[in-house]
Specification:
The protein is built from one helix and four strands. The chain is mainly beta and about 70 residues long. The protein has one domain. The radius of gyration is 12 Å and the shape is globular. The structure holds zinc ion (ZN).
């Protein structure tokens, strides 16, 4: 389970990084966006729902691979 790493639209982003729209993921789409800490999570442009769940998949504070 990864419920501790998910946030909803309208909540404040606490960790800068790359996030995946879980609603898209469950629907078979792959939509990822980068958000910075302090920003408010937006709605997803690809989802009909107004509230979606964003899951952190890669914090930007981690050392970046050069690949
Ligand atoms: Zn979505």
């Amino acid at each position: 389970m990864n419920s501790s790493r998910t946030w909803k639209s309208g909540e404040i982003c606490r960790i800068s990084g790359t996030y995946r729209c879980q609603n898209c993921h469950l629907a078979g789409r792959e939509l990822t966006l980068e958000f910075e800490a302090g920003k408010v999570f937006p709605m997803c442009s690809s989802c009909p729902e107004k509230d979606v769940t964003w899951m952190l998949i890669r914090p930007s504070s981690a050392i970046r691979a050069t690949a």
